[in-house]
Amino acid sequence: MINIISVFMFISVVVGAFLFIYIINNGKTHYMKFLAAVVACVMVYIFGYALEIHSNSLDNALFWNGVQYLVIPVIAVLWLITVLLYVDVIKEVNSWIIKALFIIPVMTYIFRFTNSQYFLYYSHYTFKIVGELGILTLGKAPWYYVQQIYTCLEILAVVVIFWAYSFKESVGGRYRYRLLAAISGASSITLMLLLVNPLGGVLDYTAVSFPIILFTLAYFIAKEDIFEISAMARNQFFDQSNEAMVIVSEKNRIVDYNLKAVDFFERNGIKLANTDIGIFQEDNAALIEEVLSNQTEIYQEHTNRDVKYWEITSNPIFAKSGLRCGAIKNIKDITKEYLEKEHLEKMAKVDELTQLYNRREFNAYAAKLLEESDKTDESLVMLMLDIDYFKQINDTFGHQTGDLVIQRIAKEVRATFRQDDFIARTGGEEFVVILRGISESDAVNLANQYREKIEHLRIIPSDSNYQFTISIGLASYSKGMSLETLISYADKALYEAKNSGRNCVIAY
Description:
This protein has 508 residues and is an alpha+beta fold. The protein is 56% helix and 17% strand. Helix 2 packs antiparallel against helix 3.
């Protein structure tokens, strides 16, 4: 008989070891470390009991019983904590609920390991050899009943939780919860048998039944993946993804994340943990606000050298019941695509030669300025600039020199006028400037400063003495005036400047 029990116990410890390693390697959600602790404790319990029944003396048997009691008081506590975290009843492992659960186990440690002085846990010890088994008989003292009843109540709470939550799930989810309730209930029955000992047996019912429960749990974790969504899919899709991925519950608690997410958040001042994602607002409020959003967001990560752009998308997760239970946050590096898009958008608005706004952007932006001016009564003055005798420059020195002149005109116009003034190239040698919040007389003075600066430029490589000039037409905006009217007034003023000998500023 002892050989059968020895083999049974040995196999149980080996299965427990494999299950422990499997959970440690594949279970990355916040409650899985507690499940691993439960399995480890059960392994120690089984191992200790196996050596207890191989003992040949009372002292030896009591020693191995003491080894078992290193873990016995906390097995049910750790299982209950695993379940409370699994169903999201508690959020933090440092919750006062968790601390309170350990009060009686701590008292059990005290009474068990000081039992030889007070006999509050065991009233007496006897040891005898029955066949090939060493049987340690322990008289039950008051605290033994307290510990066993407390353990039964904890496991009963687990059964109730699983059963209650099963009604919130679809058929598949209901099966999973009720299976876990049945596994927990089986261990509770063996504990009750220890209390009443109806068969007067010589073996520890719990130590003998726990391996069977452990085998069942190992099978369903490996085959049914009852604690996590497919470990294989996780390895292929989640951990190995090129995107940073974070799984959050419906209450915005971080449930899981991959290594890319760890790297991304650490670079942005956040060390991820299985907790409410909102607590990281103090570390990086801008990033967390965009992660919490259910819309697609663009986050700018400022590095020492440049700026990276990340697209944050939120993909809802639905339970089989149809209820939303969380979301996967995908964080993808889109710097290349974003800059290309930005460049294309800029090219659609900007003149390639001068990097000033083009005619299309001028028409759109000028219309907005006129609308704002009608609402705020802010003054607007439009300047229309044209290079004098530009055809002659092209014909004499070539188009390349003509482009050089246009570029220098653009550079000087940016340097002369104010930063918030709108500047555009609207034709070959024609430019438009819209001045905001300025009187017409001040606009004329500013335009003349610019005209004089151009007059003194000497930039043509093949003729260092060649002088070119510009003519400027100016018109002030009146409330209710259309953009077409304002342009026509500035154009008429420019035409008059041309007819007045060029190189001058004329107001309409």
